[in-house]
Amino acid sequence: MKLPFVKMHGLGNDYVYLDGFGDSRVTALMMRSRWSAMVRSMSDRHTGIGSDGVIVLTLPRASRNSVAMRMFNADGSEGRMCGNGARCVAKFAHERLALGERAGGRVSMRIEVGPPDERASVLRIMCELKRQKVWRATVDMGKPVLALAKMGVDRRKLAFEGVRPHWGVQAEVGRGVNARSICLVGVFVSMGNPHMVVMEPSSGGALNLTRLEVDSVPLTTLGPLFERHPAFKDRMNVHFAAVQRRRSKVAGGGDTIHLRTWERGAGPTRACASGACAALVAGSISGRCGREATVQLPGGSLLVRWDRRTGRVYQTGTAEDVFEGVWET
Which domain holds residue 73? Predict the structure, then answer.
């Protein structure tokens, strides 16, 4: 079977996009036992298309919604939220499926997110157009969840409770004489998927990580180690953040967060929009920043705002096509 695809990215967070909205073959493929293997093959950066995973557009369950999306990580597992992917879905839906409500130079739509056997989250998206194409979008990511139990974190398996809202998480690495214990101090936030945001050194003391320290973190060692920590029921997205607060309103600019991410099921990614939202919330509730910041990621910057009145988090960033092709199944 020849399967058309579009590779797209949001700040370097790249996915292969398939049209299950208009092509029933795609939804049929997702029902097969070899679907996970196909996702891994397509995502492989050496022998496949190369991506952080596969996102499928499907028909929404509710008629008031524009489209639905299902996100699969590069390891074949299904995820529940992808903020960068949602912006690209909106671009795909508008430009290729003529979906959304247009008003002036903007298009709005509602996107269902999540597996069909779970209650869907609905993301409201406002797209900005240039030459009739979507170039940037603002996504309403909803309200953050801070209760550990609601994001699948077992507090009994955490090392300690620090100065609120910080928690210590300890893991063992190596064996025998080379065995050692590593402890991270993080803040937990769910944005429809769970995030641990580390903003201070293991020594604690309410110190802030510097940008140099964040850049020096051995992400490929610590990421997988803590992603699958026994305290996390459904694995964990792990982030390291350096927060810099604006010193003076007169000087202009705003708070900035320098962020690196280990994404569950995908590994190190160039951008994670839900993680950027979680980092802003974590920085805000820990007193490190305000409720609005520019989050600097390896793939670019996102504007993130936590609205004081509604409690909802908004992220704004670009969505871009990379190339189109046909995959032989």
Answer: 2-141+319-328
Q: Which of the following is catalytic: 88, 127, 183, 272?
A: 272
C-beta separation of 71 from 83 below 8 A: no
Residue 183 annotated as catalytic: no
**What CATH number did the domain enclosing 277 receive?**
3.10.310.10
For residues 129 and 245, membership in a common domain is answered with no
Nearest 5 degrees, angle CA 115-CA 321-CA 123?
Answer: 35
Total domains present in the chain = 2
Same domain, 82 and 52: yes
Q: What CA–CA distance (Å, rounded) separates 70 from 76?
A: 12
Same domain as 189, residue 50: no
CA distances from 67 to 63, 94, 137, 315 (A): 9, 10, 16, 20
| Vertex 258 angle, CA 257 and 261, to 5° | 115
Indicate the Cα dihedral angle 85, 241, 146, 281, nearest 10°.
Answer: -80
182 with 269, same domain: the answer is yes
The active-site residue out of 82, 88, 277, 289 is 82
> pLDDT of 145-165, one tens digit each?
999 999 999 999 999 999 899
Distances (CA, A) of 168 to 62, 263, 285: 41, 20, 17
DSSP 150: G
Specify whether 180 is located in the same domain as 307: yes
Same domain flag for 208 and 70: no
Do residues 273 and 83 touch, judged by C-beta distance below 8 A? Answer: yes
Q: Which band of pLDDT confidence, cut at 50, 70 and 90, is reported for residue 117?
A: confident
Q: How much is the average pLDDT of 257-278?
A: 96
Same-domain pairing of 295 and 205: yes
One domain for residues 246 and 109: no
The CA angle 168-182-216, to the nearest 5 degrees, is 100
Q: Could you confirm whether 289 is annotated as catalytic?
A: no
Least confident of 26-30, 199-203, 223-227, 282-286: 199-203
